[in-house]
Amino acid sequence: xxxxxxxxxxxxxxxxxxVDLTLIVVEPTPRSLEVASRAMAIAAExxxxxxxxxxxxxxxxxxxxxxxxxxxxxxEIVVVPYDSAVFDAxxxxxxxxxxxxxxxxAQALSSLADLVA
Length: 117
What we know:
50% of the residues lie in helices and 18% in strands. It is an alpha/beta fold. It has 2 domains: 1-81; 83-117, no CATH class. Strands 1-2-3 form a 3-stranded parallel sheet, sandwiched between helices. Strand 1, helix 2 and strand 2 (50-58) form a beta-alpha-beta unit. The chain is globular, with a radius of gyration of 15 Å. The relative contact order is 0.14.
């Protein structure tokens, strides 16, 4: 498992089939989705495993999910809702999973962990 820098640079340097799963984290904004589209193309071209798109800071699940699908197509999506508990945890320097484990964002992240395990 590796957490890569933002953008597509690292994806372009990986050898084909070097990874089993590619998580692409996006926000429901046109610029973020444009980068995600390019990352998806690179991951597919290099056979970089199963592809899951994590849509972060979602305020309107239906609208934001449709925006992602319109731009990225029929992909596996995990929605992480906008949640002030994430910012509260960051302010005190701890994980949201430790700070507010029952908040909506923490629950979504726990579901994501189960999905990719």
